[in-house]
Amino acid sequence: MVQTQLLDRGVQDPRVIHAMRKVPRHLFVEPALVNRAYDDDPLPIGAKQTISQPYIVGYMLQALKLKGTERVLEIGTGSAYQTALLAEMCTNVFSVEKLRSLAVQARTILDELCYYNVALHLGDGTVGWSEHAPYDAIIVAAGAPNVPAPLGRQLAAGGRLIIPIGGDQSQTLKLTCRTPTGLEETDLGGCRFVKLLGRYGWPG
Q: Is the pLDDT score of 125 beyond 90?
């Protein structure tokens, strides 16, 4: 997986590669799909949600340019695979999940793997988690029509936010950086994610 789906396609950040070699992706998929865990495809995890394909996870993490000392906010815990990768790559991870069933499963697997630097919150990810802001990086694992305003406000000076923006069928991956003059946005290419539901996302 690491060689063909990441290194050969330009994901070469050593911290990303180390984390993706270490975290056992097969533990984060449904038992019936274990034989497909390392394929470069999104897979269902229940509740109409998915675990993203390895390449897009690696690509997004590389874009954040994490050095190891950051406080990171993750919106959409889901299977907790990306959460575990973040736990390997930074000091503290604060992850918000809207669905209780996924949040419970996530806490269980993260504890089993001893990722104790992760705090989980059950709630609307589009409003962020202001109690622990500001964040050095924010990563959103679902597509929104626009960047939720609260997430921009919770981004630290010099911080980076990555989120899929667009319609409900396809989006463009956007990297937003907080600079001394405001927020600067860069397009990182097309993608497709499930909807980000919530007050500042899609209704539902």
A: yes
Known catalytic residue at 79 = no
Residues 140, 163 contacting (CB under 8 angstroms): yes
Domain 2-191: give its CATH superfamily: Vaccinia Virus protein VP39 (3.40.50.150)
User: Would you say 170 and 192 are in contact if contact means Cβ atoms under 8 Å apart?
Assistant: yes
- What residues contact 67, with CB distance under 8 A and at least 6 apart? 15
Q: How far is CA 150 from CA 14, 22, 47, 78, 147, in A?
A: 31, 33, 26, 21, 9
Rounded Cα–Cα distance for residues 167 and 195 (Å): 9
* In contact, 143 and 171? CB cutoff 8 Å: yes
Q: Mean per-residue pLDDT for 113-141?
A: 98
Give CA angle at 73 (69, 79), nearest 5°.
110
For the entire predicted model, the pTM comes to 0.96
Tokens for 87, please give them: 């736990």
* All structural domains of the chain with their residue ranges: 2-191
Residue of 52, 95, 101, 130 marked active site: 52
For strands 43-46 and 118-122, give the pairing. Answer: unpaired
For residue 168, the model assigns a pLDDT of 84
